[in-house]
Automatic annotation (TrEMBL), chain A:
Its main location: membrane. This is ABC transporter permease. Keywords: Cell membrane, Membrane, Transmembrane, Transmembrane helix. It is found in: Cell membrane. Pfam families: BPD_transp_2. The keyword Cell membrane applies. The chain crosses the membrane at residues 27-50, 70-92, 104-121, 127-149, 156-175, 213-234, 255-279, 291-309, 316-336, 342-365. It is a multi-pass membrane protein. It comes from the Bacteria. The keyword Hydrolase does not apply.
From TrEMBL, chain B:
This is ABC transporter permease. It is a multi-pass membrane protein. InterPro entries: ABC_transp_permease. PANTHER family: GUANOSINE ABC TRANSPORTER PERMEASE PROTEIN NUPQ (PTHR43370:SF1), SUGAR ABC TRANSPORTER INTEGRAL MEMBRANE PROTEIN-RELATED (PTHR43370). The chain crosses the membrane at residues 48-79, 91-110, 140-159, 192-209, 221-238, 245-263, 269-287. It comes from the Bacteria. Coiled coil: none annotated. It comes from Micromonospora echinofusca. It is found in: Cell membrane. Keywords: Cell membrane, Membrane, Transmembrane, Transmembrane helix.
């Protein structure tokens, strides 16, 4: 991030590495092998610990895809995961690595709760305002990291990560403090560390009428955002500048791009998208429609993994988010087979590795072989010069 | 209880809580000086905590468990080092994946297994332990606690006085320049991660077989990130990093002890204090460039 990568003759190689183009068949082949290995390892884990891999797969399928009800629950998880992942795509494109999605989701959900409970706005306008404020608040939260980088040179990865813990405690404080967002006491009843239920006109409804299948509006929002992000990143001047910054900040700077400002803004946008995910978590039937300290439920971390598997491509993130939604909703059904639901976390981590490693490895292999052939390596005389630069 | 008893209790619990951090912080400090911002330290600590209890339960010896913890930490360090400094996958991606994998795997395994409680022996230094207020805190503890007295000077010597440490620091400050002088950049970074793994493993294992005696799901609960905060708070200097660990441990001890003493202090504020301190330190010291210049940047031969 602070890195100054001097331009040199091997720019094409850097380009190939940072922005993987259409994957070649060897990478695809190795990826398929790696995914098979990841699934095989997971099955081995189940078998070794005395469970039945077949029964586990059946349970995962039952809980996530077997019937329209299962699909409804899968797609409810998909929407926030996709929104978070899209944010990652934006910031990763600029080379600003945002690690604070979990906190940004929480801040989005918190701001959304505040608006929905405190502002007396009639009708569906409230829903719109809720989402806007959620995006703005989470964007501003991530923007703090941008400012710290811009003015004090604070490492973005570290600051976004640390601010996650701030966000967690801030939300915990909000829902345990009566004059802030904690639920109101009815009579002499007890109160829990959560907010009141969001009013009905701030809830996301279902779209269309299908027997047993509920298509929540949150999913449509996420899909529309995915298309919008894809268009902005690949078809607009802003998207092109982002890519420039990500590929080579020094060149971008000399070409007249204000790197810190642009990257910082991309970081804020990525936070805003995570904030939208928080608002979806609050207002869709995926949860209790109340703000709770655990409302983010690792959606932020998982969304990051979705983007990693999709290699930061917005449209590819759609099926990956569905896959992660499947793992989430199916995980709940594992308990009946005696296999701990934590299995899906193992599967997720192994899958990410299986998708991330092959292109890097193949790139390395091809680089090593061309290096031996002496085609790309710089002549010895140039090395010190570059090192000084 | 008298006032001095209270202080003594909080002090003792503060030290117990800061020791796992201190072990791991020595490792994280060394890894960061070599240029790896190692976020898989959380996974190292958690994996080691699990391995120590599992091994102690199988062999019946808590000390063997401690050793197993260090070995698991080392293994994770080797895996991380090879993935990010040989295959050259982004180090933060590797860290995230390792943390997710270890959390999932340990949660999975602890749900289906039963382990006995095992704790290493407690030792106290005669005479000194009778010093009022600080005696109980400083001179009584589980025996691995006293390892810190050897590890801190050793880490300092390795980084500041040994040839190896000089190379590590060169790699962390300017990887390209170090490469030109013939230092194997990625090899040094892998070695630094291995050392980090051993110490983080000791820290996690100390938490499990030293203080608690058992393992529960996600038992480190973000202590690894706290260690990263401590290194930042220490502005990449060992002494201040350890001061940070002690402060964070004390804040934790106060959070646990104050309600019992009838003092109301916002617990969220105490939990968040370490992270706030780390952020503030970065804001204040960023301009002085205390951090290793190549921190978090991958090194690849031929691209400057």
């Amino acid at each position: 991030m602070n890195g100054r990568q001097a331009a040199d003759g091997t720019g094409r190689r850097i380009l190939a590495r940072l922005a993987p183009g259409p994957a070649n068949w060897r990478v695809v082949g190795v990826t398929i092998l790696a995914v098979a290995a990841a699934l095989g390892l997971s099955a081995l884990l189940i078998a070794v610990t005395g469970g039945s891999p077949v029964a586990s797969v059946q349970a995962l399928f039952q809980g996530s895809m077997a019937d329209p009800t299962a699909w409804s629950s899968t797609l409810l998880f998909t929407a926030p995961l996709l929104l978070v992942a899209l944010g990652v795509c934006v910031s990763a494109r600029s080379g600003f690595f945002n690690l604070g999605q979990e906190g940004q989701v929480l801040i989005g959900a918190m701001a959304a709760t505040w608006v929905a409970l405190r502002l007396a706005i009639p009708g569906p306008v409230l829903l719109v305002v809720t989402f806007l404020v959620a995006a703005l608040a989470a964007g501003a939260w991530a923007g703090l990291s941008s400012l710290m980088y811009r003015f004090r040179g604070v490492n973005v990865v570290v600051s976004t990560m640390l601010m996650t813990f701030l966000a967690q405690q801030l939300v915990a404080y909000m829902v345990t403090t009566p004059w802030l967002l904690q639920e109101s006491r009815i009579g002499t009843g007890t109160v829990s560390p959560q907010s009141n239920k969001v009013p009905a006109n701030a809830l996301l409804g279902s779209v269309g009428e299908y027997p047993n299948l509920q298509l929540n509006a949150g999913l449509l929002l996420a899909l529309a955002t995915a298309v919008a992000v894809a268009v902005v990143l690949t078809r607009t001047r802003w998207g092109f500048r982002l890519k420039m910054v990500g590929l080579n900040p020094v060149t971008a700077e000399s070409a007249g791009v204000r790197v810190a400002a642009l990257g910082g803004f991309a970081l804020a946008v990525s936070g805003a998208l995570a904030g939208l995910a928080g608002a979806v978590l609050l207002t869709s039937p995926v949860g209790t429609n109340r703000l709770q300290a655990g409302i983010s439920n690792n959606i932020g971390w998982d969304g990051l993994l979705v983007a990693l598997v999709a290699r930061n491509r917005p449209l590819v993130a759609i099926p990956v988010a569905v896959l992660f939604g499947v793992l989430r909703s199916g995980g709940g059904f594992l308990a009946a087979t005696g296999v701990p639901p934590f299995l899906v976390d193992v599967v997720k981590a192994l899958l990410v590795l299986a998708f991330v490693a092959p292109p890097v490895v193949m790139n390395l292999i091809s680089r090593r072989s061309t290096g031996r052939a002496g085609r790309i390596v710089s002549t010895p005389a140039r090395v010190p010069e570059e090192a000084v630069a | 209880m008298s006032m001095s008893d209270n202080i003594s209790t909080i002090l003792a619990s503060g030290i117990r809580l800061s020791l796992p951090l201190a072990f791991a912080a020595c490792g994280e400090y060394l890894a960061e000086r070599a240029g790896t911002l190692n976020i898989s330290i959380e996974g190292m600590m958690l994996g080691a905590a699990f391995a120590s209890i599992a091994t102690a339960s199988m062999t019946g010896s808590a000390s063997v468990g401690l050793l197993a913890g260090a070995v698991v930490g080392l293994l994770i360090g080797v895996v991380h080092g090879n993935l990010s400094h040989r295959i050259e996958i982004n180090t933060f991606v590797v860290g995230l994946v390792i943390n997710a994998l270890v959390l999932g795997l340990t949660s999975y395994l602890i749900t289906i297994s039963e382990f006995d409680t095992h704790q290493v022996a407690q030792v106290g230094i005669p005479v000194l332990r009778d010093i009022p207020i600080v005696g109980e805190a400083l001179f009584v503890g589980r025996w691995p606690a006293f390892l810190i007295l050897a590890i801190v000077p050793l880490t300092w010597w390795l980084v500041e006085r040994s040839r190896w440490g000089l190379e590590l620091r060169a790699v962390g400050e300017n990887a390209q320049a170090a490469d030109v002088t013939g230092i194997k950049v990625n090899k040094r970074r892998r070695q630094a991660l291995m050392w980090c793994g051993v110490l983080a493993g000791l820290g996690g294992a100390y938490l499990a077989v030293g203080e608690v005696g058992s393992f529960n799901q996600n038992m480190t609960a973000g202590r690894g990130y706290l260690v990263i905060a401590a290194v930042i708070f220490g502005a990449w200097r060992l002494k201040r990093t350890l001061v940070g660990c002690a402060l964070f441990g004390l804040a934790d001890a106060m959070r646990l002890a104050l309600p019992a003493l009838g003092v109301t202090l916002n617990s969220q504020l105490l939990i968040v204090a370490p992270y706030l301190l780390a952020l503030l330190t970065m804001l204040l010291f960023a301009a002085q460039h205390r951090e290793p210049r190549s921190l978090g940047q991958p090194f690849e031969r031929g691209t400057a």
